[in-house]
Amino acid sequence: MKELQFFTNDKTFTYIDVSSPTFEEEKRQLLMQDFVVSGDRIRADTVDSAIDKHKNSSGENY
């Protein structure tokens, strides 16, 4: 199972796998680029499923 944290800015979204050894550094870099944490972490069987959950919960159309 994947656990992803999503980040958004006013144009797009991205995500980081929470179990990645570079998660904290990647998160720091995204925040410095004006991304913000978007909701809670999402657990799903696949990345595509997590993206679908994120889109449905955020209501955004990227």
What does this 3D model show about the protein?
This protein is of the alpha+beta class and 62 residues long. The chain is 35% helix and 27% strand. It contains 2 helices and 4 strands, in the order ββαββα. It has helices at residues 23-32, 47-58; strands spanning 2-8, 13-17, 36-37, 42-44. Strands 1, 2, 3 and 4 form a 4-stranded antiparallel sheet that branches. A hairpin with a 4-residue loop joins β1 and β2. It is flat. The model has no long low-confidence stretch (mean pLDDT 93).
Q: Count of helical segments?
A: 2
How large a portion of the residues is in β-strands, by DSSP E? 25-35%
User: How many β-strand runs?
Assistant: 4
Major sheet summary line:
4 strands, antiparallel
Distance between the termini: 24 Å
Quaternary structure classification: single chain
**H-E order:** EEHEEH
The rounded Rg comes to 11 Å
In the predicted model, the low-confidence regions spanning at least 5 consecutive residues are none
Overall form = flat
Can you give the helix content as a percent range?
25-40%
Structural class: alpha+beta
Mean pLDDT across all amino acids = 93
